Structure formats: structure tokens, C-alpha cells
Amino acid sequence: MTERSDPLSPPEPVVRCGGRKAPVPKRKQPGPYRVPPREQRHGLVIVNTGDGKGKSTAAFGILLRAAGREMKVGMWQFVKNVDGRYGEHVAAERLGVSIVPLGDGFTWLSENIDEDRALAQQGWAICRDALRGGEYDVLIFDELTYPLRFGWLDIAEVLDEIARRPTGTHVVITGRSAPPELVEMADLVTEMKLVKHPYREQGIGAQPGIEL
């Protein structure tokens, strides 16, 4: 690529009629970006739902971006076992970000539904306090749709708490089968569609760095 064709090189002066050169516009140098104070931000409710893979993964992208802006971000996982330690937990520790597992593994395979219901209610109490406290800029409630779908949490109470969150606070919720009431409330809803899956088509199990 020649210097003239390089899009990053300064533009050459344009010669006008009469041999006079037009002034070359000065390039604005990007300065450091500063996150606006909360009262100047519009807090969003974001929902990642659908049967396809990528709901939690997309939420991790928000977590990474917010952490990069030095915003206070936290994630609470309603299905991941409280004793589990996955790749995201290790990475979050290095970033100084809190990821809190609240569940007991795959709830739909559980043999103790009453215990899972109690865990979900205890987990929501923790999330509710985090919402009310105003400490976090971004709160991610991973797989919250499941206890809502199973009727373990009062959806009206959950939505009310989210609606009354401090100004400028973003809330991200993931999980399949998001309730219509949650979809209606949200500012951004993305439905992940499954086209192909390595386990379904090829019997390939979960891979480190991809699923765990």
C-alpha cells in the first residue's frame, strides 16, 4: 500500500482552480474517554434469551467492557453451583470483578426442587440488596429467567425492584424463555437462535475456554 492510498495517512491538499490550495482539515486527536456520572446516564434493562448458545457469553462481553471503563460491575449466577469454579471466575478475579454462583447446578435435573427453590429465593435476596445498594453500575443476573419461569420468584416483585433501581444503573438478565412481562419491560432484547451445536450434531462435549 502506497502512502497516498493509506487511509491513515494525512490527506493531500486539494488544488483549486487558479492554483490555490484548499486548507487541509486538522485531525481531531482522540482524548481519554470519561464515563458520565450516573445522573447523566440512561440505565438499560438488557435481556439475552432464546434456545441458542451465547446468552451468558454476550453478558460476559458487557462485563468486560464495563470493567474496562472502570465501572463497578457484578454478576450473580442462578444456576452455576456455589462450589463451582469456571474460567470466567478466574478471569473475573484477575479483573477485580465479582461473579457469585448462587445455584445448585442444572436445576431442571434436580432431585430436590424445594432446596433449589430456597436457593433461588436466597439468591434473589442477595441480588435485590445489590440493586438497592447503588454500588454497582452494571448488574448481571445470569440465568434469572429459570427461577422466574418455574414460579420460584414473584415476577412482579422482581420487576418492581428492577424498575426502582438507582438512576443510571444497567441490568442484564440471561436465560431461556424470558417471561413476556420481562420482555415488555426491557430496553434491549436479543433472542439467540440455535442453528448448529457441536454436541447435538457431532456428540462433542463441553470444551474448556468455550463452555467452562
TrEMBL record:
Disordered: annotated segments: 1-37
Cross-referenced InterPro entries: CblAdoTrfase_CobA (IPR003724), P-loop_NTPase (IPR027417)
Keyword annotations from UniProtKB, A to Z: Transferase
EC number in record: 2.5.1.17
PANTHER family to which the protein is assigned, alphabetical: CORRINOID ADENOSYLTRANSFERASE (PTHR46638)
Sequence similarity: Belongs to the Cob(I)alamin adenosyltransferase family.
Protein name: corrinoid adenosyltransferase
Organism from which the protein derives: uncultured Gemmatimonadota bacterium
Lineage of the species this protein comes from: Bacteria, Pseudomonadati, Gemmatimonadota, environmental samples
